[in-house]
Amino acid sequence: MDAENTTCPLCGEGALGLLFPAPDPNYQVHYCNQCGLGLTRPFPSLEVLDGLYSTRSYRSEERRFIAPLELGVWLFRGRRLEMVQKHIKPPGRILDIGCARAHMLSMARDKGWDAYGLEYNAESARHAREGRGLDVRTGNVWDAGFPEGFFDVITIWHVIEHLKDPFRTIQECAKLLRPGGILVVSIPNFDSWQSRLSGRWWFHLDVPFHLYHFSARNFGALLEREGFRIAGPAHFSLEFGPYGVLQSLLNRLTLSHNLLYEALKTRSLRTGKGGTGTMLRLAFSLLSLPVMLPLSLVMSVSESIAGSGGSILFVAHREESK
Length: 322
Ligand SMILES: [Zn+2]
Known about the structure:
Elements: E1 16-21, E2 28-32, E3 38-41, H1 46-52, H2 67-87, E4 93-97, H3 103-110, E5 114-118, H4 122-132, E6 135-137, E7 151-157, H5 166-176, E8 177-188, H6 193-198, E9 212-213, H7 216-225, E10 228-234, H8 241-254, H9 259-263, H10 276-287, H11 289-305, E11 311-318
Parallel strand pairs: 4-5, 4-7, 5-6, 7-8
Antiparallel strand pairs: 1-2, 2-3, 3-9, 8-11, 10-11
The chain binds zinc ion.
């Protein structure tokens, strides 16, 4: 697939045009006039991608956020597994694509699952293998050596939009799942209220980490095209929805990018420059929280009820007959 072509890689029909410049001045967001797919342009080279996901800047450290948030991360990983277990009983084989620190997979193994992971960052994968004793591989899912029909469940949590070829990844998932198995995918919704209201300041736009920007409609169509029967999607996510609204509003008001989010990371992962202007904007962000937090929660619930949630979750069944 030529990522820089002028026809849409999802629907193959629409023309691509500039939507807006990204907060990172090196990138723009383009948009398909037929299916609404957003694309990050220029497409980062392999060298740039390797740098983006390098050990220092992405995820391989054991702690990523300040302590109270790390507890939240654990609780949310547990909820992910509970959701999977509602659909597939008893525990079977599970693959988590983009498993990062493999929290969910280690919980799954403790509950009797045969757990496998795939991770872009070699250092993170090694950490999960050596630290947790899990089978975590690197590279593309089609090169990972899994046999067809091997898995009962494949999960992709806020990762498909990071991948160079999400389309082939979904095709491969259909092959690797047994008939009746499920693919669970959560994605940021480019067609959500929070995305539309905040535009280039949307927290979950996350350029250049996010290469594609899907909507509920076009991603659902992609899953169905690859032979999945889909339920939902669910439009409310406590993990991603309210914070997406909050940080997007703060970005718009302070005309700066994710200052609060940076401040919530562990000291070694913070990238912000601490000038006076930045400190004032951060102070404004913190002082506004008593108003902004409840407002964000209300807005996140409202957009979900309206079917335009900021983070959506698909449970896609591989047809029995396939
Ligand atoms: Zn399109």
